Amino acid sequence: MKPMLAPQFLEALDELASSDGENWWKDILGHKDLVLAVRRNSLNAYHRGASIFRIDWKASKIIPTVHVKYLIRPNQSYVSLQGGQFTHSGVAPVFSSYGGLKTLNSMIKAAQLHVGPEKAGLHPMLVGNNNVIDSEIALARMDGSPTALDDDEAEDSKRKQDRIDAAVVTSKDGRPTIRFYEAKHFSNAGLRSAIGKPGVLEQIRDYESALTQHSENLSQRYLQTAKALVRLSEMRSVASGKVDGRQPHSLVKQIAQSGEPPAIDPNPHLIIYGFDEAQRDGAAWTKHLESLRQHLPERLRLIGAPTLKTKFAGSPSIHSEGQASVN
Which position has the higher pLDDT, 60 or 93? Predict the structure, then answer.
């Protein structure tokens, strides 16, 4: 498989990272609340599941794109309607140029208005765990047959699309292994069912089918992704002038340096979060929880309020919010 990011693309990004002065790429690399995801000759800079920047390599050029809804300035005031025309006074309501880190922070603030609790809740774990190798992984289904897609293919596809929330590198039998996680807020209706199985189980089953069918391709893909993440970490060090404090996990580096494709765990895990102790232990919920545990043994984890310190895998612990994390 070819590298996920073309060598010329990486070289051009290197030049931006090492150039004098500030620029948008340095701001992205240094921002602690953004998650970079590697696509085919493309990068996404995510905040709470929202792609703040998409960075493409086209016609031998770096092409960063932004959805216009993230360019709307926060804290807008009312405008008057006079003679059929809305009148604006002072600063334009939409950014027309990039003005450095202040603009990026405003874009992130604007994105938060469009993000629901499901994406927002998992974000601290994506930022805080350096063994995350991918996020917002696009899948598509046609006639019930799931297939793995690159991000650009998923956007253009008319097929039903799903996105697994996270892919994390773990170790199994001494070999780096990619484990996938689907995350649901406690309020998600798919976690409950008055009759039959909860809807989330069908979603997990579809993921299992896609991951099994495309395991070889995904294994090669994540070998190349690991190499790209190590290179991006080096750019972050160059841009900041100091050692990257968010270096990839040793398992990610092992994949990149060994050249050996990681194993793919085709059985996604489910994380449920966004609840307090009373909700977790309530009789109305426990019957649904037992159904989920029955169908996902050792693949279900409850986390009241995820934080930067919450790990994707580990023993039960008590987080700073005082809410139990239950495996």
Answer: 60
